[in-house]
Write a structure and sequence with these properties.
The complex is a heterodimer of chains A (350) and B (593).
Chain A (H helix, E strand, L loop, with lengths): L36 H16 L6 E5 L16 E4 L5 H11 L4 E7 H5 L3 H10 L3 E7 L2 E2 L5 E2 L22 H7 L4 E6 L3 H13 L3 E7 L15 H7 E3 L1 E6 L14 E5 L5 E6 L9 H13 L3 E8 L6 H5 L11 H4 L3 H11 L1
Helix pairs in contact in A: 1-6, 2-4
Chain B lengths: L8 H7 L1 H5 L6 H9 L3 H12 L2 H7 L4 H4 L2 H4 L6 H11 L18 E5 L3 H10 L5 E5 L8 H4 L8 H12 L4 E3 L7 H5 L5 E4 L5 E2 L15 E3 H9 L9 E5 L3 H12 L4 E5 L11 H9 L4 E2 L2 E9 L2 E14 L5 E5 L5 E4 L2 E4 L3 E2 L34 E3 L2 H4 L4 H19 L11 E6 L1 E2 L3 E2 L18 H4 L13 H8 L7 E5 L9 H5 L5 E4 L4 H6 L12 E3 L8 E5 L8 H4 L6 E9 L7
Helix pairs in contact in B: 3-4, 3-8, 3-19, 4-8, 5-8, 8-19, 9-17, 13-14, 14-15
Classes of the chains: A alpha/beta (350), B alpha/beta (593).
């Protein structure tokens, strides 16, 4: 068994614009089951950060408990990280974000960690529109405890042991749209071509970006009758639209002539070019986005891609009107400016 | 692209860069693995079966394997394959059954071998176990050919050569030493079933038309003859100031030998730029290390004679320019000639084939370069079917390992010829595939990639070695250093085998591969596929491994170029669609089916 990845990398792979090699974004070797979808998501994260040229030391990765939540060990080995209590990643991320708004926050969670034990935490982090990318690695089962159905398992889905899931499932994307997230998307671990730009767009969005990634559990939930298997997702998924993500630093080289292309400019001037189907729903409209999800669900299809985007969303700091400087950099004199200033404030109220 | 046919043994053979580059196709990774396990005798046997002279080649081989070695592309320097070969030769135990048994009952066929160099000795070794009677002719008193007469002892000790030559002679070769074959016609009339010519390229090129050559003849020597004179004790001294002309390995041997015979100021003068010199880079390094400057871009003009004695040589300064046809041409810079004083000159400006003993009416046709007309595959004379050529005598000067490889081929041809079979119906290589899986995630081979750099071979102090031309310069690896070097080998013979029917396209292998070799892409024409892989696949000498179509319509494409053969793809594959299998490829030899 290999515990250390050899350090050799392909000699012809160029560094990114910031001068980092792809290896600067890698982590340790995975100890998940071979073939786990989570490994592919980790690699999409590595690729997205590499392509965006993010300085690894400017990223903070947060997680809770579960197969998904151990993955931060396998990517961004040179970034900050915090592995929190089960389901409590959103609170930790909120605290960190309050203390230092200048870092890029990446929360990694699972379907159990978010839709069961952490449901309350998830809902309020989304409501506050915390400036972070929240990724759920969603395999519809509890892999660490032998594969029981989780809250996101579809009703009627059959697991490896043959039992049918009788309970209604929670659609985290729909919930995130309802609760006010500014960027909501769904990806599939088996389609990195779509997932990598989704993560890039999510990292560039200001406010809470939520990506639900269907990630088959090869050990307990990858039989053909499971709606979270490689096979099923490939047969039953449909993308809202194809899109290109253009980070703001990059000059736009492609010209989009057709009317079907819509450009969505994000807070940092990155642009998402959406190539829509003729009768596709408008992903910048919240009601259409939810209808679209429900329509596909009724047809037994899984809708992927950018589901909803609101480029003008205000994040927690905007809402709370906090100061521009990170709170952890404020000194005692900044926080307690003295009685003269207090006098001034009091005078203003007289 | 068409899916790769891995049933064709040449596909995986090509992946083993070192073995593929070796003319004799010695299973390099297999013997290096044996060395890493300290199984020196087995490593030696494997070598011996393939290249016949592991002890010799471990010191003086031209090493075509090393520039080909994948480690050189993955890291900076290739595995020291050649010196590892020496390690197993130095550390092996004496075994009685190294050579295969030779039958008492002969098959009645008599074969004459002319010249006792590596090609002829290989033919003898391959044919003796099949019952052939072998007559070996050479004008020297002992076997070895140019390995004996030209390679200086400080690179190849006589005892090492003698041991490996004698192993073959003791198999029952009928030797006719001190016997120069003067007439091919006479030899042919003796009724041999086949005649093998392995007489090398025995004539050193001279510069007869250079002004002053005749007057200076006592102080100007042809390099290979002079080296032979040193080996046989006819030459024991040389002048203080020596010029060596030429840029090949013979020039390097000449200058280093001259340093040991008393040459204080030895210089090598070469016409071409240094970068185009034919000598192996390590030989050039050795010469520089022994304080021998190399003066490049100097074309000889004349030998300068003063008072009837050689005073030095004059050279024209030249530059290498490309002509319209893309060939390099040397052009005078127009600067005044350079005078280099010297007492003696050694000419190492090339070797020629010469067959003065083959009469024009002997029935053997030669081409316009003075080389025999041959079938390049069978090495059979185009005009006289019972005559075969091999080694430098066949296609001009090459090297020992090529001579050995041609010896094997000639032996196959002779065996087929003597049985009246078609020479083109040749035995196939022997290949074995063996799974490397041991338990869930363990391998039978050492799949951890060692990240140490190339180990340095220890040498005798320069002051000491320059005093004694018989003292071997290199000490060779000791067992510990040798093992560290052996572990640098990345086991290119342990193949990654992919089965499309088992793959669920989960991307685990793509994500885990440290070298970004593996891709799942839409198929297309090769140059277009190469352009859109994860890592640029610009090395066209390296194959792309293309699978059968997968359920999504895509194909798996693996660029073999910098694969570490670490097995991580197979470890991370949930369905065993990737498998690690050891592929042992052994070239065919005479007598095999």
């Amino acid at each position: 068994m290999t515990f250390f990845r050899p350090s050799f990398r392909h000699p012809d792979l160029p560094p990114n614009e910031a001068g980092y090699t792809r290896r600067d974004y890698e982590g340790g070797i995975s100890t998940l089951c071979a073939g786990c979808g989570h490994d592919s998501i980790c690699n999409a994260i590595i690729q997205a950060c590499f392509e965006l040229g993010l300085p690894p030391h400017r990223v903070a990765k947060m997680s809770g408990i579960g197969c998904s939540s151990k993955t931060p060990a396998y990517f961004l080995g040179k970034s900050h990280g915090f592995n929190s209590v089960h389901g409590r990643m959103p609170s930790i991320a909120t605290g960190a974000n309050m203390a230092n708004r200048e870092l890029i926050y990446l929360g990694v969670s699972g379907d159990g960690d978010t839709a069961s034990i952490g449901m309350g935490q998830f809902a309020h982090a989304v409501r506050r529109n915390l400036n972070m990318l929240y990724i759920v690695m969603n395999n519809g089962c509890y892999g660490l405890t032998k594969g029981q159905y989780s809250a996101t398992a579809d009703k009627g889905s059959k697991g490896k042991k043959g039992g049918v899931n009788a309970l209604e499932s929670i659609d985290l994307c729909e919930l995130a749209i309802q609760l006010g997230a500014g960027f909501v998307a769904r990806g599939f671990s088996g389609d990195k071509q779509q997932l990598t730009p989704l993560i890039k767009a999510g990292l560039s969005h200001h406010g809470l970006s939520f990506i639900d990634v269907i990630s088959p559990c090869v050990t307990f939930n990858n039989n053909p009758e499971s709606t979270k298997s490689y096979h099923w997702v490939r047969e039953h998924s449909e993308a809202t639209n194809t899109f290109d993500f253009v980070p703001f630093r990059q000059t736009i080289t492609t010209e989009y002539q057709d009317d079907a292309t819509e450009a969505v400019t994000l807070h940092d001037n990155s642009v998402i070019h959406l190539h829509k189907h003729p009768h596709a729903a408008d992903v910048t409209d919240r009601r259409q986005a939810i209808d679209n999800l429900e329509d596909h669900k009724a047809q037994g299809m899984i809708l992927t891609g950018v589901l909803y985007v609101n480029p003008a969303s205000a994040d927690t700091h905007d809402i709370l009107n906090t100061c521009e400087r990170p709170l952890n950099s404020l000194s005692e004199t900044d926080l307690c400016p003295g009685s003269a200033v207090l006098e001034e404030i009091n005078a203003a109220h007289r | 692209m068409k899916s790769t046919d891995i049933e064709d043994p040449e596909y995986f053979h090509r992946v083993i860069d070192c073995q593929f580059a070796c003319p004799a196709h010695t299973p390099v990774p297999e013997y290096i693995r044996l060395i890493s396990e300290k199984r020196y005798t087995e490593a030696y046997r494997l070598n011996w079966a393939s290249n016949v002279f592991p002890g010799v080649l471990g010191r003086v081989c031209d090493r075509p394997c090393e520039p080909a070695c994948r480690r050189g592309r993955v890291e900076k320097e290739p595995v020291a394959i050649c010196r590892l070969k020496r390690l197993c030769a130095d550390n092996r135990e004496e075994v009685a059954d190294l050579a295969p048994p030779v039958p008492q009952q002969k098959n009645g066929k008599r074969i004459a071998l002319i010249g006792a160099g590596p090609a002829s000795l290989t033919v003898a070794r391959d044919l003796l176990p099949l019952g052939y009677t072998i007559d070996l002719f050479d004008d020297q008193a002992q076997g070895g050919g140019f390995m004996r007469s030209q390679l200086p002892s400080f690179r190849l000790p006589e005892s090492v050569l003698a041991a490996e030559v004698n192993t073959i002679l003791e198999m029952g070769v009928v030797t006719h030493f001190n016997h120069r074959v003067d007439s091919m016609t006479a030899l042919l009339s003796e009724g041999y079933d086949a005649v093998f010519v392995g007489t090398g390229a025995p004539r050193g090129r001279d510069l007869p038309d250079l002004p002053g050559r005749r007057e200076a003849h006592k102080k100007v020597h042809v390099g290979i003859d002079w080296l032979a004179g040193v080996v046989f004790g006819h030459v024991t001294t040389i002048g203080e100031r020596v010029l060596v002309l030429g840029g090949g390995n013979t020039a390097m041997d000449c200058c280093r030998t001259a340093r040991r015979l008393g040459g204080e100021n030895v210089r090598v003068v070469v016409r071409s730029p240094k970068a185009e010199m034919k000598a192996s880079p390590w030989e050039i390094d050795e010469a520089l290390h022994e304080d021998i400057p190399i003066i490049d871009n100097h074309a000889p003009l004349e030998f300068v004679i003063r008072d009837g004695l050689l005073a030095g040589m004059r050279f024209d300064r030249v530059v290498s320019v490309q002509d319209a046809a893309g060939n390099h041409q040397l052009q005078s810079t127009g600067e005044p000639p350079v005078f280099l004083p010297c007492d003696e000159v050694l000419l190492a400006v090339g070797q020629l084939n010469a067959f003065p003993w083959i009469e024009p009416d002997a029935g053997i046709v030669f081409n316009d370069q003075g080389l025999p007309a041959l079938d390049p595959r069978t090495l059979q004379s185009a005009s006289l079917p019972q005559v075969f050529f091999g080694g430098d005598a066949a296609f001009g000067p090459r090297n020992i390992i090529t001579a050995v490889a041609q010896g094997h081929e000639a032996a196959i041809s002779i065996d087929l010829f003597c049985q009246g079979k078609s020479l083109h119906d040749r035995p196939a290589p022997q290949v074995y595939l063996a799974g490397q899986k041991m338990g869930v995630h363990d391998w039978l081979y050492h799949n951890q990639i060692a990240e140490t750099g190339r180990q340095i071979v220890p040498m005798v102090a320069k002051a000491k070695t320059l005093k004694d031309r018989l003292l071997e310069v290199e000490l060779g690896f000791d067992r510990q250093v040798g093992q560290a070097e052996a572990l640098r080998c990345i086991n290119c013979d342990v193949q990654t085998i992919f089965r499309a029917d088992l793959c669920i396209e989960c991307d685990a292998c793509v994500d885990a591969c440290p070298e970004s070799c593996i891709n799942f892409v839409d198929n297309g024409p090769e140059d277009e596929v190469r352009a859109r892989l994860k890592a640029p696949a610009g090395n066209l000498s390296q194959s792309l491994y293309v699978s059968l179509p997968l359920p999504t319509g895509r194909v798996m494409v693996k660029d073999e170029n910098v694969c570490l053969h670490c097995g991580i793809c197979a470890e991370r594959c949930p369905t065993s669609a990737w498998e690690m299998q050891k592929f042992l490829y052994q070239s065919a030899q005479a007598g095999q089916l």
